[in-house]
Amino acid sequence: MKPFVLLATRAEDVPADEEYELFLRYGGLTERDLIRVRLESEPMPHFDLDELSGFIVGGGPFNASDPWDRKSPVQRRVEAEFQALLERVVARDFPFLGACYGVGTVGSYLGATIDGTYAEAVSVVEVSMTDAGAADPLLAGMPPTFGAFVGHKEAISLLPPQATLLASSPTCPVQMFRVGSNVYATQFHPELDVEGITTRIHAYADYGYFASHELELTLSAVRRIAVSHPSQILRAFVERYARY
To answer: What is the value of pTM for the model shown?
Structure first.
């Protein structure tokens, strides 16, 4: 199989390594099938799209809506690299699945309005498919409403017309969208399970996602609803786009 590429930006080794393991597990992939590039520590290489099955983007610490002068040199580099990659990906309609930070990367490329209006605390939310989502192959077999893990300081508040809304939630209107036929982004995390989000809660306890005294409350919030369906999206992406 031609490999997929995971474009990651987490600087902390424990959640970064666990993120990779989660994408492997729920994507049904081996390390040979999923090349990881840690963009926080190395420039994005040039990719020959003909030699790949697709791209997956994990979550990370960068906020696309931050003022330019507050962005680190690393963030500025990473954003420029994503813009250049997405020019090729969108033009070719090449398989791409961005989780959480994927909304920031694809949304920024499209000129979407991204701000803090629909930020969501670390928790489980109920995500509902639109009619377009119910007809989309990546959501085939999913229930109309399902629980998903979220936690983000920014979100898309206005989706541009060239994007198709696939899923929404009461607290965040753009939870999943598609561009063309093969470029996807989710605000929620399709790769996460309870253990994975617990690791991230501890790793990012001082990153402003919740107050220091809210640690136990946040840990309880991610256990209030069973989450089992979002990983089907990741598996469906791999199965649909794996090239041999």
So the answer is: 0.96
Question: Residue 74, exposed/middle/buried by CB under 10 A (0-12, 13-18, 19+)?
Answer: middle
**pLDDT tens by residue, 174-199:** 999 999 999 999 999 999 999 999 99
Give pLDDT, residue 224.
87
3-class secondary-structure state, position 48: coil
- Nearest residue to 144 via CA among 135, 153, 152: 135
Task: Summarize the chain as % helix, strand, coil (round to 5).
Answer: 35, 25, 40
Q: What is the average per-residue pLDDT within 98-111? A: 93
Q: 212: helix, coil or strand?
A: helix
Which residues, 6 or more positions from 195, have their beta carbon under 8 angstroms from its beta carbon? none
CATH class name, domain 4-241: alpha beta
CB 177 within 8 A of CB 168: no
pLDDT in tens, 29-80: 999 999 999 999 999 999 999 999 999 999 988 999 999 999 999 999 999 9
User: Which token pair is 122?
Assistant: 């670390």
Please classify residue 131 by burial: count the beta carbons closer than 10 Å to its beta carbon, then call 0-12 exposed, 13-18 middle and 19+ buried: exposed
Domains of the chain, by residue range, sit at: 4-241
In single-letter form, the type of residue at position 128 comes to S
Using DSSP bridges, classify how beta strands 163-169 and 113-115 pair: parallel, antiparallel or unpaired.
Answer: unpaired
Longest C-alpha distance within the chain, in Å? Answer: 50
- Residue written as token pair 């840690």: 38
Q: Which has the minimum average pLDDT: 125-129, 150-154, 203-207?
A: 203-207
Tokens of 225: 């609803």
